[in-house]
Known about the structure:
Shape of chain C: globular
Largest interface: B-C, 47 and 47 residues
Oligomer: heterotrimer
Radius of gyration of chain C: 18 Å
Helix content of chain C: over 70%
Strand content of chain A: 25-35%
Number of strands of chain C: 2
Shape of chain A: globular
Number of helices of chain A: 9
Number of domains of chain A: 2
CATH topology of chain C: ABC transporter involved in vitamin B12 uptake, BtuC
Strand content of chain C: under 5%
Order of helices and strands of chain C: HHHHEEHHHHHHH
CATH class of the largest domain in chain A: Alpha Beta
Order of helices and strands of chain A: EEEHEEEEHHHHEHEHEEHH
Helix content of chain A: 25-40%
Strand order of the largest sheet of chain C: 1-2
Amino acid sequence: MSTDTDRAVAAGTLQVQNLGVRYGGVTAVEGSSFEVAPGECVGIIGANGAGKTSTLKALMGLAPRTADALRLGEVDLARVKARHVVRHGIGYVPEGRHVFGGLSVRTNLELGAHSRRWDDQAKATLEEVYTLFPVLRDMRERLAGALSGGQQQMLAIGRALMSRPRLLLLDEPSMGLSPKLVGEVLDVLQVLRGRGLAMLLVEQNAWLTFEATERCLVMQNGEVVMTGRSADLRHDPAVRRLYLGL
Amino acid sequence: MSRRPLTRSIARPALWVVVGVVLLALPYTVGPYPIHVVDVTLVFAVLAIGLGMALGLAGQINLAQIAFFGIGAYVLAIVTTDAGWGFWAAAVVSLLASVVAGLAVGVPALRVQSHYLGIVTLGLALAFTSWVTNSSVTQGANGISNIPVPPLLGVDLSSEYLYYYLELVVFVAGLAFALFVVRTRLGRRMRAMRDDAIAAGALGADVRVLRLLAFTVSSVYGGVAGILYAGLIRYVSPDSFTISTMFLLLAMVVIGGRQSIVGCVLGAVVLSLAREWLTDFATYAQLGYGLVVVLAVVFAPTGLAGLPARLGLGRRRDGAERGALHDFVPGPATAAAVSDAGPADLQVEGIGKTFRGLRALHEVRLSVPAGAIKGVVGPNGSGKTTLLNVVSGLYTPSTGEYAVGGVRATALGPTALSRHGVARTFQNLRLFADLTVRDNVLFALDRSRSAASAEYLVWPVGVVRDERRLRAEAEELLAEFGIADFADLAPRSLPYGIQRRVELARAVATGPRILLLDEPAAGLNGQEVAQLAQIVRTIRDRGVTVVLVEHNMGLVMSLCDEVAVLANGSVIADGTPEQVVADPAVVEAYLGDSSQLRDLVPDQRTIREAAGDDAEEVRA
Amino acid sequence: MQVTLQTLVGGLTLGAIYALVALGFSLVYRTMGLVNFAHGQVAMIGAFTMSTFYMTAKLPFVLAIGIAVVVTAVLGLVIERVLRPLEGKDFDLMLIGTIGFGVMLEALAVVVWGATGRAVPSPLHTAPLSVAGLKIQTYSLLVLVVALVTTAMLVGFLHRTRVGAAMQAVAMDPEAATSVGIHVGRSNAIAFAIGAGLAALAGGLAGPMLYVNATLGSTIGIKGFAAAILGGFGNITGAIVGGLGIGVLDAFAAGRFGGYSDLVVFLLFAVLIMVRPTGIFGERTVNRA
């Protein structure tokens, strides 16, 4: 995305220290700490139930959380209401896409810019999203619920981009997609990365994560058990053990 | 929302004696008008017990209770005055009429629930009002007078003092029966159904029969109250059976505490008396009821009966502190629980399932040999849980067939499948949250049919005997599963790992031939996973086939005889763990492009080593 | 034939009222998952408010209805605030709580306006139109037109405005809506206020057709609710079709069965619901995890 001029968005580092998420009696995340620098792409991998999704939800204020520090640059995210997080430059692509199925593709995208004024710049952003995902332009009057899984994923990413974020949180963008579509998702992530957008990518698909990110955190049972450069983890048998139990 | 279970351990006998003496002596202390008020109050108490049974116990929104009441009273009036029958003969007819009405109103409950059921039952109550105000048989708005005094062995029941004792006997009998139901298997089933109808059905409770029974029981109380009312007032008119009376009744049950029968009685007494005191300020009284109901719902959803617990009086125990999770020690109870019929195989032939055009499963073929542990794995969204929901009867497949133990099972519902020996656990734990751990297990152990509940009337001793036997079995099973310390606690108050164990015990208690486990290791720590593996293996050795849907690959690799891998709704690999894990298609489905991740694809040597290691670990 | 058509027109007019009530029910339900059993009583308050401004304060009919809509919408905001703890919760509690609220409103109406009720004169004094031998009251036409225009405006609001689209988004997925910056609580409050306003409009329009008293709420409330369910709960088209359907059914039942019309309508309704529990157009459920 082109640089933002109409408002000062915190472009600082995402700092997370000792994050905990508990639902009732169940601990989903415990004591996890990490950072995402501006323009950096970081992955979180791990088996189902490792606490990946809960981590992202906690950052968005959508899950009950505790943390020693939860900051984006100068902004104390711990004090920001869930509905205001987007204003600080964080876009969120939820697991399972969660597009507004009964609304048209165009309305979905317009709602992505709900936190901003609908001005020329917003319209320009819409054009950029249409350029990035031509299929969405073709389908713009269709109901989002009628799109295929892959198209819905594109829409979910497009919707998040409409707020012109500096940091994009992506939760399992490959879920339920065929290998070919996973490749297309990767292409999109590469383009966004090329534009200097910081990303925190939660994935079960290790290959996609290694391709799209510079660094990875490995989570297990709610804790970060390993961190490393994606290029190194790609050859690490520990990852295999995590996934295949060997 | 905290609800209190209906069963309390034992009510303090001293309190009952005091209450009994007060009730017996009451007529000697009050004047003629107060005794009339008390008589009316008792009628409402009976009515409220009935509503409590449907609404609180079984979770059935029944806004037609007033119609059952009205039918009881009106039929009695018509049959005694028009047909000239004696009071008691007419009473039998009117009770039957109420029950028929109860069954009729209950039928929609088989198809619809919650607010739909609310509006249907309310509509039927209005239909009743429409009938009595217009029909010539009911003499329209004038009502029917000259209902005879019920004769009773020369006792003059036209005296409201003596009538009080008749009512008292009926009320006490009604209360006792209600408490008996609540504390035995029928009540337990109804509460289970209220908490989670899907889980109750999947564990073998015939939810439809239970719903009809709830309405029937409710209508019996309504009919009895109607008969008592007609005998007391000896005049019936539409004014007594309006929708506002229905709402008053609802207020009694809510304010008293809809999930406690005693609470319902309490609510009936409090509001009946309040209504009497405020009779000159009817409008303000109405305003008051409304306000109290709103406040009760927002601030005290458990009503008067739940107040002690909400105020922190009474027992309040934190599950985690109270006991320890012990090791699983299989014994006679586990062995007895497992079906004698032996393990059943599962054959899935080309199952497909489509949700609104979205294909979740496609041509799934799967064979689980009897007595095997078969793993079903795959990435998120690959259709594993959908498959489990199909073979446990919760979803009807769009295409294909499946058979359990050689019997075609595609068209059987979850309840029939449960009786056929299919038991399951749920990914998100569907324990009955308001039943104790013991009751969760008791519910599953009880394999009697709900339709056989006539035993409650015909041979209650049999019910008690069964209950004793079940309780003994449950205690043993709880002990063997290492959860005896938590028997009296609600699952909600327990740590996740213990809840998982309870759910497993509950599934085994149904006496399965095949056990379907949906991610049983999710949220468990390493030690708990090892215990789980041991339990599953033991259950299999006792003669149960196990299907394991799981993400924890370590568990799957060490535990399963065979593994099938699903991706995008299709089976992409099926074989021994060693074969499956070396299959490039599987690696790709899990990790992404396998050609790019050559280092991560395991070779045969590491597989063998790993398999050997894991087996050692678990045995140790 | 003549009589049948005459009944049909009467039924459609009444049905338009039910449809407006059903619309409010459905809007509130699909936005926040709240089944508001007090909705009919809100309509009744609207009818009384209208009658006060129209008959006592002698304001023009349209203005009186306008004031009633605003007053009731504000009342709706208050009710929403009180019932907020129940949103998306246990259905039984919600049902019982809103019924309690309805009982309160009914008693309140008796306190404020008295128990006897009042007949509201029709604001139109023109002679009935004669179309092909049918006599059509001009007021009937007014009601139908208002209902039509209101529905069109509501649909336009939901689909063409930012606030409307945001409200729909909240209904479909509150969490995703929050993540794009939509204020879910505010959206719910607006939905409730609009729902209450629709109820007031229905009540106000019903004034000159039905006798306005405290029980008017339960009469049009239950029929309106039945209409919403029959059409498919939470479904806008369903609310309109269901409303007109119940109205026509009501009119014919009254013609043929006299006082037994409620009996016939509700028995038939029970049967229809069992045949098709999700209504004609299917339920638009809210997302509840």
